[in-house]
Amino acid sequence: MSTAVATKETTPLTAGSVAPDFVLPDQDKKDFKLADYKGKKAVVLFFYPLDWSPTCTKENACFTNDLSRFSKYAEVAGVSIDSVWSHKAWQEKMGLKHRLLADMHRKVTKDYGLFHAGGNISQRATVIIDKEGKIAWVHVEPDITKERDYNAVEEQLKKLS
C-alpha cells in the first residue's frame, strides 16, 4: 500500500500561474535568467530526467534538429538535474544547439512542481511561459520513458503569437 502524498514539489503549476523566477547556469556556465525574457519573449522549458539516457538523448537531438520550429516563437532551454559539466560533455558529443540548464539542487524542478521523488529527478514535462511571465501551458508526460509530443508544443506556441 502506498502512502505517497502529492506535495507542492510534485504537483505541476497550472496555466495562468506566475512562473517562478530563477537563474540557472547553462552548459557554458552562463546564467539563464528567466526575468531577462519578461516583456520580450516567451520561454519554453523542456524538463527532462537525465543527460545520456536513451529517451532524453533522442529528445534533445530532436530539439536541436527542429529548433527553428520552436525558437521562432520562444526562447528554448532544456532543464535537468545534471551538472554543468555533464551538460557540456553531452552537448559537445551530441552537437546540441539549445541551452541545457543545470538544476543540480532541484530547486527549479521543485518550484515548478515537477519533481519525481522516486527517481530524485524531474518529470518529463514541457512548460511554456508567455511574455508576461505567466505559465501558458504545462504538460507532464504520464510515462516518463516516452517522448513528448513536439506537435502539441508547437501548436501551443502558435497560440501565443
Side by side, the strands of the main sheet go: 5-4-3-8-9
Q: What's the overall geometry?
A: globular
CATH topology: Glutaredoxin
Q: Give the overall average pLDDT.
A: 92
Give the % helix: 25-40%
CATH superfamily annotation: Glutaredoxin
Low-confidence stretches: none
User: How many domains in all?
Assistant: 1
- Number of helices, where a helix is a run of at least 4 consecutive DSSP H or I residues: 5
Query: Structural class per helix/strand content?
Result: alpha/beta
What is the succession of H and E elements?
EEEHHEHEHEEEEH
Largest sheet: 5 strands, mixed
Radius of gyration: 15 Å
- Architecture (CATH level 2) name: 3-Layer(aba) Sandwich
* CATH secondary-structure class: Alpha Beta
Strand content: 15-25%
How many individual β-strands?
Answer: 9
Q: Could you characterize what this model shows?
A:
With about 160 residues, this protein is α/β, with parallel strands linked by helices. The protein has one domain (about 10-160): Glutaredoxin (3-Layer(aba) Sandwich). It contains 5 helices and 9 strands. It has helices spanning about 55-65, 65-70, 85-95, 105-110, 150-160; strands spanning about 25, 30-35, 40-45, 75-80, 100, 115, 120, 125-130, 135-140. It is globular, with a radius of gyration of 15 Å.
